[in-house]
Every structure is written in C-alpha cells, then in structure tokens.
C-alpha cells in the first residue's frame, strides 16, 4: 500500500484514451494517473470533472515538459501521431505503452523501435510496449499456455477473425481515411496472435487477400473494404487464414483457432456476453459483446496492471516491441494485396520478391 | 428382401397413432402395415388415401376377427382403452406394442401384465412392450451405456424433466380429464428413465410433489397442475428430482442428468432443433423442437424397427413390460402427493406406509 | 482520487477472509485496508508481509478499540462468531459487511438484524449487509433485470443448484460439524436468489427435502448429507427446486433457471472456465471453475466496491439485511426436513403448522 | 404400399457403395435393390449373404445387359470410373445417381453432362444427379431456406471447411494418387455449397490456395497436402474461404458459415455426436462424429429417398447436374494454385486469364 505508485499520463482522450485513463485512475492499484493531454478542450474538461486532481494539457509537449514526476506515458491519441508522441516520451527516458498500431506505416513503426533501442542504452530499465490487448486476455493466455505445453503437437494452421458489429453511422468510412485499411486496423490483432502462436521469429513466405464492400461501398474511395479474407504463408510449413469484417449483425465476433498436429484449441468460437441464456418463443438466445471493448475490457485492465508492474519492478515487459513492427508490415502487405489483387511473396530473410511487371 | 414381413395393424389414428402407422408403413422395412382401426371414419378415409392397400376398420374387434394373417398390433388409441385393446390382442397370441401408459390406473396396468404372463405360456414367442420411446433414443442409449460401463461411478442422483411448449388453445385442459394428471402423462417418461438408470428393481421409499397452475387455472377442476416438481426417494441411497411443465415458451425441453459418484452425464441440457445457429441483431439464436415428436421422432422409428425385429427373430424384447406398471404406480403416487400435499412413504417391499390420520 | 477512502478492517483471514482483504486492499480503489484480525498469528504475519502498512490484531475487540479511524468492518471469520463480531461493530456505529450466513441459527441471525435496527436510529447512515455474492454477479443481475422488466412474464418456477467439486480430503466432513448442514451452507445462496427473484416478501408454504451420503457417509454423524434435493413452496403459486451437492467431478456447477409464464432465463447452464475449447482425440472439452471463488471472483470484487460506495456516498445498501435471516430460516427448515424426512408447513403469516405427533 | 418400386442397382461395393446399397435395400421404402456389381468377389459374396435375392455381378457391363427390369443405377465405384459407368447407364436411358465427383477431370466430368443432355432428348423423364450429400442435410437445408428467405440480407462471405479426422494408417497417402487432391476430394462439398448459397450461376473471378504437409509429408509425391486453405473470389462482390484438412484430432469437423449483409447463419460450428455431455474430472466433454458418414448418414438416406421419388414421380431432380462440373473445375483450379503457388484469374465469362510467363 505504501510503496510508491507509478506516475502515469495518458495522451489522447478519445474512445480508447478515456478507457485507458480510467483503467489507470481506478483499476490499477499500483499506478496513479497524474496528467492527461488532448487537443480537445471538452475532453480535458470532462477529465477534470472525473478526476479533479489530474492535470490537463492541450499540448502534449507541454505535458512532457511540465510533469517532472512523470514516469510513464500511455499513448492513445490518433493513430497518425502515435509514433511521434511515443518517440518523444521514449527520448525522455519514460516508460511507454502505445496503443496499436505504432503507425500504419512500417517505416514509421520501425522508427519507434529504433528510438527505443537507442534510448534503452541510456535508460536500461525503460519499458516500451505496443498494446496488443489480446495477449492479456485470460482465454488467449490459456490457449497459448496449452500450445506451448505441447498439448496440440506442432501448431500448423491458424485461423482468426476480427469482425466488428455493423455501425450504420458511417463512422468507419471516415475512419478508413487514416486507419491504414481493414487489415492494418482490424486484423493486426490476428496477425500479432499468429506471430505469438507460431513464434515471433516466423518468416512470412507470401500473403494474398481479397475483399468486398458489401455494406459500405464508400470505403472504396479510401482503398478499403468492409469484408476481407487473407492468407499468410510462413516458411516452415505454417499457414494462417484471416477474416476481417465490419458487417456483423450480432456484435463483436473475434474468434481464433489453432490447429496442431495433435489437437486444436478454439478461442471464443461460441461468443457470449455473459452466462445468461434466454428461452423465448423464437428459441434460445444469447447476446454477445457489442464491441471490442465489451469483449476485451478485462484484458485492457490486466495490460495496465502488468505494464505498471513491469515498470515498477523492472521486470521484462509482457511482449517484444519489434513484433509490433512485423505485424504492421504484414498488415500493410495484406492490404496491398487486397487492393492490387496480387499475391506478394518474400524470400527466407524477409525481402520482398518482385514479380515480373505485368 | 424376400424374407416375410411382420404383418402389423395399428389401433387408433390420432396424433400418435397416425405417426406409428406411418413408421410401420414406410420406415420399418421388415414390417408391413396391413390394417388400421379408428372410431373416426374421417381418419380411416385419410388412411385409405395414404395407403390404398391397407384395410380400415371402425371396430377394433372386427379388425382382430377379420385379419387372419395379422401378427402384431400397435395400440395407439385413447389411453382409456389401451389396456382393453392390448389385452384382446394378447389373448389372441399377437405381438403388442402399446403406447404409454398402459393405463392411468396401476391396477388396470397390472391387468395387462397379468394377461401377458398368462398368454405367454401358450405363445412362448409372444412379445408385448409398452413404448417408452426415450429408451430408443440414441443419446439416452449412449448415456445408459456409459453409466453401465461405470464411467460415472455409482449413479446416485437423477434429475429429469418433461416440459412441453405452452399450447394456448386449451387442449391440455380438456386432455387433463383423462390423462391421469401431469405426473402420469408427462413425467412417466422420466420415471421410466429413473428406473432404467437406477435399476428396474429399485424400490421407492417416498414420493413428494408440489405444483401450481401458472397459466391454466382451469386444470384444477381436473385435479391437475401445469407445473409440478416431484421427488422420488429410493431405498439404497438414490434420489430423483422431476419437473414437468406445460408452459415452455421456446419448445420442448426434455433434459436429463445422471449424477454419479465419479461423474455426471447430461442429456439434452442444450436443446436444439438442428445444427444451425442464427446470428442476428438481437444475438445468437437457435430453435428447439416444438414438441415431443420433434425431439424423439428417430427414437419412435427405432422402436418400430426393433420391435419388429424382436417379433420376427424371436429375440428378447427391448424392455420389460412390468416396468411400465411400476412407472404408472410411481406417477400416480406423485400425482396424489401433488393434490393432497402429503408425502407418501413405502416400506422396503413396496407397501405403502399409512401415516396417522390428521 | 483525492477524496477520502473508506477505512476498512477485515476480521478473519481464512480462505474467504484473505480474499476479502485482498479485494479491499488492491481492487477497491475507494477503500483502504487499514487493519486485520485473526486468532492465528501465522495469518497475521502473512498479512503483514503482504501489506506492511496494515495493522494486525490477534484480538478482534482490541482492533475495534484501537482503530479509531475505522469506518467499516468486513466480518469473514468462522461462521460461529459472525453474529457476535458483526453486532460489536454495529454497536460502534461502523458499517458492516458480514459473510454469509449471519449465523446457522435463525434466532442468532435475527439478533444481528435487531442490533442493526437499534443502532441505525443513532447512526442513520450506517450500512450493514450480509454478503450474498451472487447478487453482484453480472449474469445474475442481467437475469434479474430482464425478469423485472417482464421479459418472462410472471416468474413461477425457480430451479437452482449449488454443487461443489468433490473434495476427497475429508474437509467437508470436519466442516459439517459447524456449517449448519448442506442446505444452510450451500443452498443458502439459491434460497437468497429465490427470494430475490420471487420477491423478498414471499411467504413460504412448505419445505421438503431428501438426501443421501453417496461419497462421504461420515457426514451422517453431523446430521448432514453430501447430496440433497429440496422443494420450497411459496404462497401465491410459486415453487422452487433446489439441489446441493459436494460430489461434482468437473468443478463448481452453480446453475439457476427462472421459468416464467412467457419465457425462461437460464444462468450458467453451460458452465465454463473461460472461452477456450479443446479439441482432442477424445472429443471437445472445456474446463469449468474448480470452486465457488473461481466462478464468483468478479462478483466479490463488485460487492467490495459497491459496499464501499454505499458507505461513502450514503446511498441505499445493495440488499436488505432481513432477507439474510429469512434465508437462514428456510435453510434450517430444509435441513430439518432432510434429517427427519417430514414435510414442514407454514401458515400465511409464516408460523409453522405443527402436524399431529406420529 | 402396392405401388411399384424403383428397381435399383449399385455399382461398387467399397465403403460408400456398400452404404448406398444398404440405404436402397432397407431405408428407401419406394426402392428395391435388385443387383450390385463389384470387381471384388468377396464384396459380392458379402452382399449375397446380406441380401440373398440381390443379383451380383463382377462385370458392370454384364449387369447392364442382364438386368432388363433395371430403372436406376447408383454409381459408387472408384472415382476413376465414375464417369464411364455413369455414361453407360445414361446411354441406356437409366436414371443415375453418381457419387461425387463425376471425375477429377473437368473435361471428363463435362462429358457426363454432355451424355445426359444428349440422352434426355430420347428419355425425357431421365434423372441424373451427382450426389452432393450436404444438400440433403436438414441443417444445411434449414440454412439455405433462411438465406433464400432473405433472413440474412445479401449473402456475401462464405466460409466452409471439410476437416477429416487424422487417419494414421496412411490410407490417404495411397488414396491421394487418384483422389484429384484435397481440394477436389474434400473441398468439393464446400465449393458446391458456395455455389448453392451464392447461386449456381456465380462466376469465379479468381482462386488462390496454399497448403502444408504437417502430418503426412509423403503426400507431396502425389502433389497433395494434408492441410490447405483456399480463397474463391466471385464476380458480383462475393468471396469464399475454404479450409480442408486430414489432421483433426477429435473427429469430423465440417462447418459452414454464411455471412450476409444483415446476419449470419452458422452450420455445425459446435460439432457433436449426439445430445450427451460428459462431466468428468477433466471438465465437460462431448464426442463428435468420427467421419463424414457419422455426420451425414441421414443426408445420404434422404438423398436415396428423394432421388427415388424424383425418378418414380418424374419430378425435377433435387439438383442440377452441371453444377457438379463447375465444382470440379473450381476444385481443380484451387488444387493447381495450391501446387504452383500462383493465383489463377478468370474473366467474366469464365475464361482463364493467362498471366505473363514468369
């Protein structure tokens, strides 16, 4: 109780930023939320009402300058400034937990890793992670533990999907302008999981993707789709199948299966909101989580707590940062294949194989 | 193909009679439906249209007299004449498959058994069974096989329910006049299963029941209820819990659990119509069978085929007839307890223990 | 963040006491654990190591005397001293959250309520609750909300079970000496739920129970059983069916169904540990929570937070205290019926109807 | 009963041939099995024992010559002679039900359709179908009916898998020599379903596939794989994702999902052998069907009965024959892509687009 708490600031108070702020303010006992930044004054005002003692900043740089006791920054701003804000905090020696993706550009994503590699020489206890929330989910961890334990033999086929509930408001059309596309925005989680289950050093042999705009043809102006299927082929005899969609009727359907030579592990193939089943004149019904947060709230809280513990106790962070770059690279390649219709191939050291110009 | 087929008549062409007739006419390759009887001319006319070669009778006795090639009778008439029709066929040396219950009266039920015991001396190959359809259901058989194999240790607690979909037409109110009451009509199946799983020689120590009329208060005029709960205590440390209802919204919910000292087997605790799940804006939904026949159709067909095989091949019938009397006795005792509010106790040789008059 | 935290002490550091202490120490942001008591020095030592700033007491009375800043006490000691410790705290004007049951005796349970009714005149903001954890479970709350909303018509039949995993160590045999018996210890939760769903003012008409000792015959020396079935009949046409067991093979199986005139709500009828399914050579398998805490941990944490909020904000406590006495009364009547084999009846104002001596 | 029965012969008495023979012999009341052919004398001997009145032939041509009363032939021989035997029967004006695939070659498959188109001019009541058994499955039919009814809006994404239980005997390695490869052998069903759900006139835009040999590297010598993933892109904004495997641990896992713009239908995403769940010390377990027949037996029987009815009553056959050619074409293209690693594209009238030589 009396041990000092990690002094945390959150950059960005949008949908996820506000959630992170709340997790650190009230659900992470070893952390203390001391400051927030947002370019939106109304968001800062609301934060002030919710946590009167927390200091608020319109300017992230000012926050970094003023908050001399600061130890860690949670970057949860717009994706386009993730990398810039993360690097600034890294260079000050602060711990950083950055929302995914580091950037929609592999190069910019890499620059965060480079900055961290540089900085850690000076600040050897510094922790920087990119928040792939599913790695903190109890079910995914149980699945990974069993796989690592050899329960399914050699994991060989991976199938995973991130399928969002249809949002008829048109939000995703506007969002698509900067999201990097459906593979970078949605499937990035599935790609990260594939790397986690197949090994983070797995080398991609090829990617292919196809997609459609079944409900929101306007997405095409941003080179995006509302439903897409992708295949990732890895060297060493492993394959992954992805499905991403923004068209689900019932709610969030994020499911994953890992097929091994001796068994299979399925995560969330029977989605559910809770343990309630309703018996009605139309049959038996259960609800499912309406969105990503409804499914993974506990994982986000675990993430906040484990990141905090890792910073305070100087223990290894829960995941490698460079995996986040790899996931973005794969996501971008899938998105490119989705748009061009071409299969993209790589050699065994990860260099793209240029096919003949057609 | 060329071996002679069992020559079968069906008595009664109501809901279940017609189904039995169809099963024997087209889904029991080793049987041939040759005649039907019904007191309702329209039912006979319909049968004639469906099977032109089948002979029809308004009078069951005439059928027995005229059909000299007849080998087996399926009694599926009104419950009140089950016993009488069964006994007439038995006395002619015919095989009999009688719909449950033999009678709503234990004494009359017993008279069928007595007639059979008498008749079999003269016709040693004669088969008479009372159709407890669940014993022919693949899932119940799988459960019984596992239990008999010792998979759950000693079966000790049994819980089972027969819960019908609400029929707002008032059918059950009229039906209750002759049904023997909800425990004799619905729970008879669960009682038979309890005897099957605990052993047919199990001795009842006590029965208790309570009930309500939640949706059809008119049932009270026939001393019946629309929802009832019962407990059967057996000598030897075994207990059974029953629930019967005519109020289900979603469809037929017949579930059974057998708790043993080393495990439990559950049958149909997740009811379903088929393997389809519907993902809709209100969640995930599946339908369930609307009625008893929707759940047990395959079992009825198996019953027809196994009864036929037993008759043709002179192999032991699939179940003992005297169990049917025992089930009726228990059902009647539960029904009495339901109405009087008294617990009824029995000694170790099955005699009722009269409690002091209160 | 800066608002003062509820100053809490926990009495008892056994299995549940330690859990409560942890919930208040680290998972209840608005509370501060300041002191603990236990008659076991080793437990206090362990607490000191876990929370160096928390003060420890061998003597509960000393804790009450010394901790002048104390605002709330969590009573989680042995059941036999729940009431005494609760009353002492109540009389000091402290808020109290007492583990269930208040006592295994209805009279002693009532004495806690009486003390609270007396005390609240002097301390009108005082909160005293008995912790029925399931009322804080998200699934039960969802079920209750739907029922209260009329989604299933009139709730008429209630079926619930508390079934513990078999503990072959013999723990429960020793525990049975003071537990009040399986209906008071296990089914108390189901009884409380029945009252919650049917209305806390529901009047019991009769109770009946039977039971067996399938795995631990030694329980008989404490007048207890390892499997028991009970029926509660309420005035007004409502019935409840209970099953309690200490023999489950797979883990904790606590399920509840509420049958209404227009639908049914089922809670946890498909138990599961998490969202993982394992596909193995023997089929598809999932694990289930090993114990009560595995199933209800989140509910306990919610309970701690809501109790804290109610104390700090002087809002109504999440449940009425007198319901806890009623649940014990019903549990004791069921336990008596279990042992005597007699049905116990009550009149419409709750007085027991004495049947003729037999 | 007295109406004449369809006179049926079965060619081939291997695994599926024997099953078809049994279905027609005893589970298709309107059909009569009169003859069988097989090049294996032992199989004929066994058939003779099972059905003494059935005539047996080592030579299929002789069967066709001798059986003058023959009306229909079920071709269930080795895949390599499906087409030849089918065409011979077609040219005699017989009804034909041919096991899938017509051939592993699109051209040969087409020749069967051509023969039928020719023959039907002379025998206008002639029925020829290729047995895609899933179209007769109650769950798939329910799914299709709901989709056709508009329940899920516009079907846009299709995902389906045929995953066999691992057979460690090496059977599939030998079988792969003539099977046409995993996409032609297994996925042909999923492809047929895709055409059924998306419309049989759907035009393929591209196919891509990847695969591995996780458990049986010997398959490579026959240009086959034991796990493969494929994508089919259709003109008109529809995409399909396939997975085929011969590596499942638990049993047959054939699941299908159809994602529409307003909902999704899932078939068999929770596979099960029956309605039994086993509660054991390791959790809750259910078995699943061990093989394709275990899952689809009822569908095969329905197929036999509906084919028979269509022949006897001269009603439209349950499916179009040319779809079977289309499915083979798509399967062959996927298999080619699997082996070459190239995406294969088609123009809007189905002609393959040759990409630049690389």
TrEMBL record, chains A, B, C, D:
Any single GO BP term: NADPH regeneration
GFO/IDH/MocA-like oxidoreductase domain boundaries: 140-265
Domain Gfo/Idh/MocA-like oxidoreductase N-terminal: 7-119
Gene3D superfamilies: Dihydrodipicolinate Reductase, domain 2 (3.30.360.10), NAD(P)-binding Rossmann-like Domain (3.40.50.720)
Pfam families: GFO_IDH_MocA (PF01408), GFO_IDH_MocA_C3 (PF22725)
A GO-annotated cellular component: cytoplasm
Alphabetical keyword list: Oxidoreductase
GO molecular function terms listed in the Swiss-Prot or TrEMBL record: nucleotide binding; oxidoreductase activity
Family named by the database record: Belongs to the Gfo/Idh/MocA family.
Identification of the protein by name: Myo-inositol 2-dehydrogenase
Organism: Talaromyces islandicus (Penicillium islandicum)
């Amino acid at each position: 109780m009396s041990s000092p708490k990690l002094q945390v600031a959150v950059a960005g108070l949008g949908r996820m930023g506000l959630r992170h702020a709340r997790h650190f303010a009230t659900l992470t006992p070893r952390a203390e939320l001391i400051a927030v930044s947002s370019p939106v004054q109304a968001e800062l005002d609301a934060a002030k009402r919710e946590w009167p003692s927390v200091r608020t900043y319109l300017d992230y740089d000012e926050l970094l300058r003023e908050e001399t006791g600061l130890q860690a920054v949670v970057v949860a701003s717009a994706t386009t400034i993730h990398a810039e804000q993360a690097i600034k905090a890294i260079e000050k020696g602060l711990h950083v937990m950055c929302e995914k993706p580091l950037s929609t550009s592999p190069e910019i994503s890499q620059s965060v890793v480079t900055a961290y590699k540089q900085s850690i020489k000076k600040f050897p206890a510094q922790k920087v992670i990119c928040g792939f929330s599913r790695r903190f989910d109890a079910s995914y961890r149980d699945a990974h533990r069993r796989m690592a334990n050899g329960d399914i033999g050699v994991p060989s086929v991976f199938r995973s999907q991130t399928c969002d509930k249809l949002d008829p408001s048109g939000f995703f059309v506007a969002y698509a302008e900067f999201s990097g596309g459906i593979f970078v925005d949605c499937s990035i989680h599935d790609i990260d999981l594939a790397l986690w289950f197949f090994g983070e050093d797995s080398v991609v042999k090829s990617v292919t993707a196809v997609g459609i705009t079944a409900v929101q043809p306007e997405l095409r102006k941003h080179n995006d789709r509302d439903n897409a299927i992708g295949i990732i082929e890895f060297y060493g005899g492993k394959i992954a199948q992805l499905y991403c969609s923004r068209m689900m009727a019932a709610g969030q359907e994020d499911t994953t299966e890992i097929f091994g030579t001796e068994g299979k592990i399925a995560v969330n193939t029977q989605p559910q909101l809770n343990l309630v089943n309703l018996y009605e004149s139309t049959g038996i019904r259960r609800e499912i989580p309406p969105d990503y947060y409804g499914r993974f709230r506990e994982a986000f809280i675990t993430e906040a707590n484990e990141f905090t513990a890792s910073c305070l106790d100087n223990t290894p962070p829960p995941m490698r940062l460079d995996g986040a770059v790899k996931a973005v690279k794969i996501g971008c390649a899938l998105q490119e294949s989705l748009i061009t219709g071409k299969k993209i191939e790589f050699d065994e050291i990860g260099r793209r194989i240029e096919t003949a110009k057609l």
